Amino acid sequence: MARPPNYNQERKERDRAKAAKKAEKLAAKAAAKERDNPEDGAAASHPVED
Q1: Rounded Cα distance, 50 and 47, in Å
Q2: How is 3-50 classified by DSSP, letter by letter?
Q3: Confidence of residue 2 (pLDDT cuts 50, 70, 90)
Q4: DSSP state of 1
Q5: What is the DSSP letter of 2?
Q6: pLDDT at 22 over 80
Q7: How far is residue 16's CA from residue 26's CA, in Å, rounded to a whole number?
Q8: How far is CA 47 from the centre of its chain?
């Protein structure tokens, strides 16, 4: 006889996968931002004088 579906567990698994994917995207976005601007404000705090 087949077992009844466990909808709550399936939903938790989907939500966990969705949260992991979202966290991965946020980490990639933060890494890209850091790569584009490696020193936040460092250039402004140390102006080059001629």
Answers
A1: 10
A2: PPP-HHHHHHHHHHHHHHHHHHHHHHHHHHHHHHSSSTTHHHHS----
A3: confident
A4: -
A5: P
A6: yes
A7: 15
A8: 33
